[in-house]
Specification:
Helix content: 25-40%
Number of domains: 3
Order of helices and strands: EEEEEEEEHHHHHEHHEEEEEEHEEEEH
CATH superfamily of the largest domain: Chloramphenicol acetyltransferase-like domain
CATH class of the largest domain: Alpha Beta
Radius of gyration: 25 Å
């Protein structure tokens, strides 16, 4: 059986082989950990989808593979080996046991070309190019043959920037094939009059002008990217290329919230066994804002040019870890009390810093809350966590002199910074949402109930 790179989370298009837990010739049981894979979201042990013998390892440790790329091959008793490399039909898999990671094998989301038994020559050539499903989609939208695009990524990998640069290249440069090689096959565009559906909105923007390669001197220190750092870098570039970002800032008087927390925090910790921070209060305010403006809890579907309104309110919380940033998810946050939120937050933040999050902990987020204020930030411009529509940052609470009813008073003030996808919502709705969050937070006082 051919085992492929699974999709370890929404918007994840590739993973890096961290460490093989089995060697060729080893016996593996179904659901037994097979290999460690690292993405920008999680380090996961990927289990074997079948019982058998590991016969061949394709993905070496440290190698990055796109979702759907071949990882290894397992010989299953009673099944004939397939030396031609053609993929056989996998038997339906049984449900995963509770707590097990996603099984490897066929990725959850198949690209259209992966469903074809005998691909056409042009499709087979495009599949052979080292790239990601996201880049393949960009090439299809632009009618570009990937085989003709020079890749600037590691090992000649074609990136989104390469597609954009190829589109801007002079026609002669695109049309000139290699000596003795057949001209690349580019599917003709359908006439606009007979198009069955509107063309997807272009996600990639014009890249910055290319510069000379950076040269490090003997006095410079070169830091090689870890798999997590490299994945984060690629995800951040992808989100800027995908979503037209806009940011709104609101100032909130949280003097009543500060007094409330000071009154109850000691008794709360003694009773619940977890600290009471400002974060669960802000998440509750975000939930109230989403109740009033559900469009904030949505995603833009690039393939179909539509907005998908999410039914569940799953709040992602950005957590700084030793090698980068990870976003565990508080599921169904709209059904949790303040105490329930505080408990869940303490649990996922602790496990994130210990490196013991599961795949389920980082999937399915619909809105993200960030807390750079814990590091002293008073204003920021957060980047959207794809494929969500918005991300909100809570900044440091500082005492400042403000004017209240024509009098100067010292109040505890906090800024809220929210970046949003301008394809999904406009500034008016974003500001109304922030007004609702502000109203909720400023309505808290020293005597407010804490449950």
């Amino acid at each position: 059986m051919l085992v492929k790179m699974p999709q370890l989370g929404e918007s994840v298009t590739e993973g890096t082989i961290g460490r093989w837990l089995k060697s060729p010739g080893d016996r593996v049981e179904k659901y037994e950990p097979l290999v460690e894979v690292t993405t920008d979201k999680v380090n996961a042990e990927v289990p074997s989808p079948v019982s058998g013998t590991l016969t061949r390892i394709v993905g070496e440790e440290g190698q990055t593979l796109a979702v759907g790329d071949l990882v290894c091959e397992i010989a299953v008793e009673g099944q004939e080996a397939n030396p031609s490399g053609a993929e056989g039909e996998a038997a339906p898999s049984a449900p995963l046991p509770q707590g097990a990671a996603l099984p490897v094998g066929e990725p959850p989301v198949l690209q259209p070309e992966a469903r074809t038994t005998m691909p056409a020559p042009a499709a087979a050539a495009a599949t052979a190019v080292r790239t990601s499903p996201y880049v393949r989609r960009l090439a299809r939208q632009a009618g570009i043959d990937l085989a003709a695009v020079p890749g600037t990524g590691p090992g000649g990998r074609v990136r989104a920037e390469d597609i954009a640069a190829f589109r801007e290249a002079p026609p002669k440069a695109q049309a000139a094939p290699a000596a003795g090689a057949p001209a690349p096959s580019v599917p003709p565009r359908a006439p606009a009059a007979v198009a069955a559906a509107p063309a997807p909105i272009e996600a990639a923007s014009r890249p910055a002008p290319r510069t000379q390669p950076m040269v490090a001197s003997d006095e410079d220190q070169v830091l090689e990217l870890t798999p997590m750092r490299r994945s984060i870098a690629e995800h951040m570039v992808r989100t800027k290329h995908t979503s037209p970002h806009a940011t709104a800032w609101f100032e909130v008087d949280v003097s009543g919230l500060v007094a409330l927390r000071e009154r109850v925090k000691t008794a709360f910790t003694e009773r619940e066994g977890v600290p009471l921070t400002y974060l669960p209060f802000v998440i509750q305010a975000v939930v109230e804002g989403i109740r009033s403006f559900p469009i904030l809890n949505s995603s833009f579907d690039n393939e179909a040019n539509r907005i998908v309104l999410r039914r569940h309110v799953n709040i992602g919380v950005a957590v700084a870890v030793e090698d980068g940033l990870i976003v565990p998810v508080i599921r169904d946050a709209d059904g949790l009390s303040l105490t329930g939120l505080a408990r869940r937050l303490d649990d996922v933040i602790t496990r994130a810093r210990r490196g013991t999050l599961t795949l389920d902990d980082i999937q399915g987020g619909t809105f993200t809350v960030n807390n750079p204020g814990s590091y002293g930030s008073i204003l920021s411009t957060p980047l959207i966590n794809q494929p969500q529509a918005a991300i909100l940052s809570m900044e440091k609470i500082v005492k400042r002199a403000v004017v209240i009813s024509d009098a100067i008073a010292v109040r505890s003030m906090m800024n809220l910074s929210m970046s949003f996808d301008h394809r999904v919502l406009d500034g008016a709705v974003a500001n109304l949402f922030l007004s609702r969050v502000k109203e909720y937070l400023e309505g808290l006082g020293p005597d407010s109930p804490v449950a």
